[in-house]
Target: Oxidoreductase
Amino acid sequence: MYLTPKHILLAGATGLTGELLLDRLLNEPTIERVLAPSRKPLAEHPHLDNPVGEPAVFLPQLSGPVDVAFCCLGTTIKQAGSEQAFRAVDHDMVVAFGKRAREMGARHLIVVSAIGADPKSSVFYTRVKGEMEQSLRAQGWPQLTLARPSVLIGERVEERPVEKIAATLSKLVPGKYHGIEACELARALWRLALEEDNGVRVVESDELRKLGK
Model:
């Protein structure tokens, strides 16, 4: 079953995937409003509502109807500065965003997680992603979509040499571990938003690539 969401809540609009998704959302004729809070101002658009500030401040103040919420928040341990700071973004902030989106009436939450996400993983990064997914499941969403992309391929504002090398190598790997273009992921996220279902759906990277073609 397909639906036509008109009111969107988006977190992470200044990131690689979030920026591409925002552009797509603002060009969808059926969408009336995109509420996209961010630390830095976004380019103005008639259908964009862009509260600017720290998440702890603006999250409780967000208002208005929401049909679908997208969460594209994410960082790296190197960029965050420590494992604790990484967890604060990739777990705590994502979970807080989900809670607020649910309070605002969103029925469907779509979250960019990561391949291999597992709360029992011995790898800190994938363990945090798995714990984040676990926390979102506990929020009781009518519809929760967990997107697990492999290495993202695309031009970032900030230089990430290690990720650039990983992205190049990921193009040689088959199946779900093959790298995915950020533009493909953004298209896939929008297509997933149009599907109305119940329960939790985990979408692995190979399926995301197919949806994003």
In short: The chain has a mean pLDDT of 90.
